[in-house]
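assembly run, all chains below
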Amino acid sequence: MKATVYVTIKENVLDPQGVAVQGGLHSLGFNEVGKVRIGKYLELELDTTDRAEAEARLKVMCEKLLANTVVEDYRFELED
Amino acid sequence: MKATVYVTIKENVLDPQGVAVQGGLHSLGFNEVGKVRIGKYLELELDTTDRAEAEARLKVMCEKLLANTVVEDYRFELED
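ok done. output:
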């Protein structure tokens, strides 16, 4: 089973990396670029066939290691 | 218009961050986790309504700044 996890900075938390990339794009002449937010994108291979269990365990992985839930949100998708 | 950009490490390039996260998950008892690959996930607001032009310019942004095309792949989606 393959899992895709998206970790994003919460809406009301400052994203300095996004601000820096926005500045870089403006310097290159891409003035149409407004807010930029940068997150993480993870692909995990899971050696399991039980979808419900995979979801439950993936939630724990996100809470414990993959995301810092104080300042980040996460969501994931599972494919067989 | 809103753009979502996914930047991933090319399949045949080593991803040390992914290897570290895999090790961390194994240490926490998630032994079902196989290969882990970590990429970037960017959300950009674009002040434009011309979809074709937005796509063309986004491609240039990716090539010039957002992705290192020597070792990374990118893909993007546009929403109105």
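The radius of gyration of chain B is 16 Å.

Chain B touches chain A through 33 residues (CB under 8 Å).

not gonna interpret more than that til we talk
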